[in-house]
Amino acid sequence: MMSSEFFQNWFLPGIWVTIQVTFFSAALAFVIAFPIGVLRTSRVWIVRFLAGAYFEIFRSTSSLVFMFWIAFTVPPVFHISFQPMFAGVLALGITYGAYASEIVRGALAAVPAAQREAGIALNFTPAQRLRRIELPQAWPEMLPPFNNLLIELLKGTSLVSLIAVADMTFAGDLLRLVTNESAPIYTLLLGLYFVLAFLLTRGMRLLERHAKKRVGQTPEKTSLFGGMRSRSSIDAVTGTGGAK
Amino acid sequence: MSADNSTSQEIPNPAVDGSELIRFDKVVKRYGSNTVLDQLDFSVASGKHVTLIGPSGSGKTTILRLLMTLVRPDEGTIRVGGQYLTHEEKNGRLVPAGEKHVREVRKNIGMVFQQFNLFPNMKVLRNLMEAPVTVLGLSKDEAEQRARELLDLVGLGDRCDAYPTQLSGGQQQRVAIARALAMRPQVLLLDEVTSALDPELVAGVLDVLRDIAHTTDITMLCVTHEMNFARDISDQVLMFDSGHVIESGTPEKIFTEPEHERTREFLGAVL
């Protein structure tokens, strides 16, 4: 079986790297998703077009190839060097930011027109309407599809092992080479991804319950696995799962 | 304020009255190939309570939506307090107004909707405070005081901490009226405000509006199917059909001796 020394030196840090890549990519995707999603609802066509172009381009490129592109073509061309993890986070964040922008756009579009009209009748500026009325109401609707996307992202972080970032998949591969044992290692990896995804889902469910309470909706109680259900029509349009 | 027959105007009235607050000039509004308002001229004097009646699709609600700038006219101009609402003058020419100009004129206008349109993510008190604080720049304390006074006025002083969904339709609509008044508008637009309510809740809402009509000098434009209410509060009733004002006058005249055949038919059907 696997040596405990190897496990400690590679596997545990690998889990930590996976968590870090997930966290930073998600943060980047989140920061990208809001402006792009909001701008895609702009009344100015050129703004809408540019934001839409971002979405179409990065939705339609392979995040793995994009990761290779950042890791292997950017440093020589621009004479800069960076950690492989940086390339991985950048590629994943930009790609998943495009998906998430669609969630933001969809949730904003789902806020009833009557709410916008009430905002106009009270003489809010368009920015105040967005900030005070539309985004707060759209936010709880974004969380279930964000959760799906976050889990996709977690699983997508295994791609960084291919640009030599020592995440837990990378550690598993090394361990397999050293021990020549495939079944226990890959089973363990699957289990680890599941545990991380499960923890993320529970966290997102808490966030969703909190958000719903804040907008005056009664959150539904869910069973232990209830949070895995996708309950929003927005899920259907994000096309999650094609990120490889 | 009491209805004063001597000041009621014949509509359309091309004369520029000193106290004229709202004026439509040759306003055309089309939805696709359907012309909802066709070269509409009409004006409302300051402080008057005007009720728009007429069959569905005759353009009454469109007039309110135009005034609230929820839709823009295809042709013609609207003035409020002498200022163009959706146009501004640049180099002597009338051009579609920018957001800033529209907001400046629009601040005089408030609206109550058929479906209330309260903000579901805010408690009742914050529904009333949000716009005065964000838009008018009132301090929280001032806004809260104003909100509580208005909630007392509409009989809901004890429901400050409820969310809109916890209230009945009638209570929600009273909150919506208070929310519109919190902006201190000169003009209040009432768009079929009792049409979405259960019959037993209508009276409470109408009582609140009667109270406001009789104790303030706010100008009201009201689209309603409640003919008794229209008779109670209106200084002037306008009968619409197919995008035109076909008859106007005091409620006494319109409801008891309408001149136009179409008005008689309509009132016969709804009364």
TrEMBL record, chain A:
Phylogenetic placement of the source organism: Bacteria, Bacillati, Actinomycetota, Actinomycetes, Kitasatosporales
Recorded family membership: Belongs to the binding-protein-dependent transport system permease family.
Signal sequence annotation: none
Protein name from the UniProt record: Ectoine/hydroxyectoine ABC transporter permease subunit EhuC
Membrane topology: Multi-pass membrane protein
Organism for this UniProt entry: Streptomyces alfalfae
Boundaries of every ABC transmembrane type-1 domain copy: 15-201
Keyword Acyltransferase: no
Principal cellular location given in the protein's record: membrane
Keyword Cell membrane attributed: yes
Membrane-spanning segments: 15-39, 51-72, 78-99, 149-171, 183-204
Automatic annotation (TrEMBL), chain B:
Source species: Streptomyces alfalfae
Entry similarity comment: Belongs to the ABC transporter superfamily.
Molecular-function annotations in GO: ABC-type amino acid transporter activity; ATP binding; ATP hydrolysis activity
Tree of life domain: Bacteria
Protein name: Ectoine/hydroxyectoine ABC transporter ATP-binding protein EhuA
Keyword Oxidoreductase appears in the UniProt entry: no
Transport is among the record's keywords: yes
Subcellular location: Cell membrane
PROSITE patterns: ABC_TRANSPORTER_1, ABC_TRANSPORTER_2
Residues of the ABC transporter domain: 22-267
PANTHER family the record matches: AMINO ACID IMPORT ATP-BINDING PROTEIN, GLUTAMATE_ASPARTATE IMPORT ATP-BINDING PROTEIN GLTL
UniProt cross-references to InterPro entries, sorted A to Z: AAA+_ATPase, ABC_ATPase_HisP-typ, ABC_transporter-like_ATP-bd, ABC_transporter-like_CS, Ectoine_EhuA, MetN_ABC_transporter-like, P-loop_NTPase
